[in-house]
Amino acid sequence: MKNLIHLSILLSVVFWLGGCEQKPVINPSGKTIKIGIIGPLSGPDDIKGKEGLRGMQFAMRMQPYLQNGDRIELVAEDDRNDPALTVQSLKNLVQKNMISAIITFSTSDPVLAMAKVADDYKTPILAAIATHADITAHNGFISQICFDDHFQGTTAALFVRDELLIDKVAVFLNPRSAYSNDLATKFESKFKSIGGEITDTIHLAEETADLSEKIKRVHNQMPELLYLPIGAKDVLRIIKEVRDLNWKPRMMGSDGLISTMLTQHKDELHLLDGMLSIDFFAHGMPVTPFGEKARDAYNDMYKGKQRVASTTYSLLGLEGYALLLDAMNRCTDPADRQCLNHQIRSTENFTGLAGKITIGPDGKAQRALCINSIQNGLSEFIVKVY
Amino acid sequence: MAEYVAAALFVYTDDTKYLIDPVQNNSARTRITAVAFEAFMQTPQAQLEGIDHVVVAGSLEVIKEILRLSMKYHFSIGIIPTEKQKDLIKFYDLPKNPTDAAELALRWDGQVIDLILCNGKIMLFKATIGRIPLLDTPAKASWIRVLADALRKFVGFKLYTFKFSTAGKQKINTAASGCMILQHSRGSFASRLMSHDHSFSDGMISMVISAPISIIAYVTLLWQALRSSKGYKKLPSSIGYIKSPQIDIEPETLFDVLIDDEDTTHTPLHCETILKAVRVNVGKSLQDEGVGAAGAGEIIDIDNLPRENELLKAKRHKRIPFFSYASEERFQDLFPALREDARINSIYLVLMVLSTMLATVGLYLNSASVIIGAMLLAPLMTPIVSLAMGILRGNIDLFKNSIGKIVIGIIIALLSSALITFLFPDKPITEEMLARLNPTLLDLGVAIISGIAAAYSKSFKEIIQSLAGVAIAVALVPPLAVAGIGIGRWDFHFFYQAYLLFSTNLVGIIIAAIFTFRVLGYSAVVRSKRSLAVVFIFLILISIPLYLSYARIVDDRVFEKSWQHERFLVNEKYLIIRNASLFRRGDKRIILMDILAREPLDRSDLNAFKKKIQANFSKKLIIRINTFYIP
To answer: Which of B533, B566, B574 is closest, CB to CB, to A384?
Structure first.
């Protein structure tokens, strides 16, 4: 019996030791690596920049140092989502602040403007929310951490056609937004190529006086779904008009819709109930170990305090920061912009919050998107498309 | 028509003073002289001048004093109980109403009854020695007190050695938790356990001896007492019974003796009957019982009391176990059968070979019905049940024989199936084989339930045929056959997984059968704890891989389910996953998917699809797909 007791104790110790995980210790080197942030921190789109910055700041709390002990410092520039200011911000950050890399929360139009001059500054830029397919084209320094509109538009069309088995769709787009145009065009071309019918393509001006008439015209064509790659404000206007007609078509929005609604139109969020939307994340979707770690840290931070809901922008900020640090850790000198750009574009199977992210040499991200259904103000997960 | 005494003395106390008026104004027109108990005791002789009947109302102590004087001065007695004296009312069948009680007390035709003296003290109803929880419940106690008292007595419930001597010079050495001496069969909870052939005036003392071998046995005894109001012709187990004019009780330990729930003395205890000692007016039902035959023979029924080894156990002063134990004599039919089951014979060897061959062929044919046939033919269950009994009772012979029989059976099974596999030209892996390669904790659950059923069936002849069903449920031979096939294929993983399932069944059945036998009271008087410890260590050891396997299966099911939400865009082609099933072969994981697609998939699509899966899930996944096209 004595031997058995000794064996049990020995086994317990072995299991206990096996269960211990040693955390790597980072000794600060005294050096600082600067990461620039460009985004709308003021103006009508300020929520994108502010939320992105919040996500990055949270990520910095989790991971303030590189593996070599260099400390990270964030330097933010407000571009008000204005292309001219975006380019100016790029110049400021590169030339005055000597940043090593930039993460931008500006939308597609300002980032497309930046894309034209990106090679001149030879600084790696991560576009967090600008999904236009041409952002990574014609330059060697802007990479996307988000999926692009080509993937989003194609997937939306195939989901509507093959899973919802819908034949007729009406598309609404904002002609002044490159993002909206690009997404609508991609959706239309794919939907038509697989036998679907686009009953109408409606171009929305800022204050479309005759929206009611347009919706009636669309209604007469009896589309089964309205595809809405437009801003939250326009989506709300359309929903109200549709309701006035006592019409209940299915509707599908694009990425960022729920986040904008949550932060700018929370009172009207209920109007979106039942609507489909494409996004990077979803409520109730499985998360990765990194996602769990971030969630735990987030819960700790807000323990006993009023919680602030995360948005797609803040989560992309968190992911962008982590991915950038992962690339920096692979460079001997994290401040070496050429190396960093190369490493960003060699990112393979980086574990994000909800899945893997790979960035190819062309700067495009391969990551999954979620198709969600909005219910009670939450994006409920339906499917994930890789 | 009833006749009454002409004159009587009414002895009262302060508590019964209120009865003077009803007694004096009795309908029998008896002349009553009321006297306080204290005054009466000072000059009893003078008070009894010209009186030969005394009516008494007071505490038990007062009544006993009056009874003692009755023996000396030979007067008859009538008793008027108070409302609280329920035991008195019950034992003497007295009316509760004071007027009716007075009417009965003043009758002249009292019953001649015996008195029992224990260590010189009068015992009216019962005397209790040691612990007899619930059976010794006082008549006037509240149920909360009864339960609390019972719980207190169950804690540290032990058997002690006792020596009993009777008037007939019988000396009995046994062990008991306690005993109870009864004056009369009426009313007592304990009296329900014995035959009612004794009375107030048979010159005998009745004694119930409680010697439960387990808490379970004692609870059964209480249940029997609760169910029966007429008494048992045959004494329940755990109970002994002695009836004699005189009983001496000498326990090894000094015990307090509670007489009539009030008065106390201590052991050694000498109880004797004073034959026809007093005349007391009792109720009609007792008058009808008549007078018992004085000096009728002693009764000594001690078959259920501990003896030999069991007595040795009592001498160790260990607490009474929760489950019962027994000597082999108590189960004379079962043990020879178990010993026979543990012996190797030619029938066993032939059946083992045939059942394994049948199982192996059935596995290759992927035929469930053939495999079930093999399960029914398999003779492995009986030595396993014998092994369980051998371990429980620490019976080395039974243990060795049954282990030997099982080991030989396993070797035969492994060799037979391996040989068939060697000879088989084609060696397909069928679903029936795969089903036996992923044992989990759930399989252990099946084995445990089957083990309980096996032991239970073996214990009762009338349900022995159910063993066939148990054999099917637990399926011992097919996993052995699969393990043998693993040997034939030189595939260690195959062998290990199937043998793990067999070991799970084996250990599960043994543990469950031991437990069942123990609950059913088959454990030995002196148990072998070492063998039990070894089996439990085996159980823990086997639970580790089973738990890991179970956790893995849960992960796999979650993984499979998650695929229902996964879609792939491959070269602009949209792939919908309808179903996904995960199989494991060693370290390899094979995922079999049903996918829906609109367009035909070419090699480049499949390569891109594979790359996406390997990038996002696991590089080790082997992908097999069935494609269905959306019209």
So the answer is: B566
ipTM entry: 0.85
Residues of chain A with C-beta less than 8 angstroms from the C-beta of B537: 4
User: Inter-chain contact A162–B616, Cβ cutoff 8 Å?
Assistant: no
Rounded distance, CA A125 to CA A359, Å?
A: 13
The answer to the question of residue A190 being in a domain is yes
User: How far lies B124's CA from each of B88, B115, B142, B207, B423, in Å?
Assistant: 9, 7, 22, 14, 87
Residues A275 and A233 in one domain: yes
Q: Is residue B2 assigned to a domain? A: no
Within 524-543 of B, beta carbons closer than 8 Å to A belong to 530, 533, 537
In which domain, by residue range, is A317 found? Answer: 32-146+287-367
Inter-chain CB pairs, A–B, below 8 Å: 52
Does one domain contain both A272 and A292? no
**A386 neighbourhood in chain B, CB within 8 Å:** 566-569, 612, 616
Task: Using an 8 Å CB-CB cutoff, list chain B residues near A150.
Answer: none
Among B50, B75, B109, where does a domain finish? B109
Asked whether A109 and A79 are in contact (CB, 8 A), the reply is no
- The answer to whether residues B418 and B491 belong to one domain is yes
Domain count, chain A: 2
Which structural domain, as residue segments, surrounds residue B184?
Answer: 121-315
Task: Tell me, yes or no, whether A239 and A337 share the same domain.
Answer: no
Residue in chain A nearest B629 by alpha carbon: A162
B202 with B294: CB under 8 angstroms? yes
Total domains, chain B:
4
A347 interaction partners in chain B (CB closer than 8 Å): none
Which CATH number fits the domain that encloses residue A381? 3.40.50.2300
> What mean pLDDT, rounded, does chain A reach?
88
CA of A312 vs chain B CAs: smallest distance (Å): 20
Nearest Cα of chain A lies from the Cα of B530 at a distance, in angstroms, of 8
Asked if B221 and B359 sit in the same domain, the reply is no
User: Could you tell me how far CA B371 lies from the centroid of its own chain?
Assistant: 38
The C-alpha of A385 sits at a distance from chain B's nearest C-alpha, in angstroms, of 4
A340 lies in a domain?
yes
- Residue A191: CA count within 13 A, CB half-sphere: 31
Report whether the peptide linkage leading into residue B631 is cis, meaning its omega lies within 30 degrees of zero.
no
Contact assignment for B562 to A286 by CB distance below 8 Å:
yes
Task: Of A191-195, B437-441, B485-489, give the lowest mean pLDDT range.
Answer: B437-441
Task: Show the tokens assigned to B449.
Answer: 């339930």
What is the average pLDDT value for chain B, to the nearest integer? 81
Say whether both A196 and A296 belong to one domain: no
Question: Considering all CA atoms of chain B, what is the largest pairwise distance in Å, rounded to the nearest integer?
Answer: 130
Nearest to A385 among B530, B568, B615 (CB): B568
A191: nearest CA partner in chain B: B572
Band of residue B388 on the pLDDT scale cut at 50, 70, 90:
confident
Closest Cα in chain B, distance from residue A247 (Å): 30
Q: Could you tell me which residues are beta bridge partners of residue B269?
A: B249
Is B116 within the bounds of a domain?
no
Residue A210 CB partners (closer than 8 Å, separation 6+): none
Paired tokens of B131:
């612990």
Residue B346 lies in a domain: yes
Q: Do B567 and A386 touch (CB under 8 A)?
A: yes
Please tell me which of the candidates A162, A355, A366 has its beta carbon nearest to residue B598.
A162
pLDDT string in tens for chain A (386-residue length): 445 445 444 444 444 444 444 556 788 888 999 999 999 999 888 999 999 999 999 999 999 999 999 999 999 999 999 999 999 999 999 988 889 999 999 999 999 999 999 899 999 999 999 999 899 988 999 999 999 999 999 999 999 999 999 999 999 999 888 899 999 999 999 999 999 999 999 988 755 568 888 899 999 989 999 999 998 989 999 999 999 899 999 999 999 888 888 888 888 888 999 999 999 998 888 889 999 999 888 888 877 777 777 888 999 999 999 999 999 999 999 999 999 999 999 999 999 998 999 999 999 999 999 999 998 888 888 999 99
Residue found under tokens 């697989």 = A194
Using a CB-CB distance cutoff of 8 angstroms, which residues of chain B are in contact with residue A284?
Answer: none
B631/chain A closest Cα distance in angstroms: 10
The span from the CA of A276 to the CA of A163, in Å, is 13
